[in-house]
Amino acid sequence: MDWNQPLSRKRVALAGLLAVGLAIVVYFHPFFLSFVLVEPPGRGVAITVDNEMSDDWTSDEVVEYDEMTQGQQELFDEARTQSGLTYVPDDVDHNLWYQQDTPYVRYNGSVYEVSIVED
Fold this sequence. Notes:
Blueprint: H1 9-37, E1 45-50, E2 62-64, H2 70-81, E3 86-87, H3 95-98, E4 104-107, E5 110-118
Parallel strand pairs: 2-4
Antiparallel strand pairs: 1-3, 1-5, 4-5
């Protein structure tokens, strides 16, 4: 490249666009990184509730609906009334079903099976 020759308008415009693009990326990089790299809150663990009442349980595997926290009750209600996965919010303890060997919930006289799904 001969540095003594004038730059064409296309090259100047391209260099300007690249500079503006780089400035935007540098300025907004925390937002872009958090949007692209961070998993949405509550994703990763979900529950499903089998709406068919189960007869395959023992009393020590059942937790009473009234013994659950408000967050667990809301999560159970949401999962019971919809199909598919219901993601567990970060502030709700799902270990009640996962680690305590109580995969069943007694609600209004019926027993429902709760399954944990790690996504």
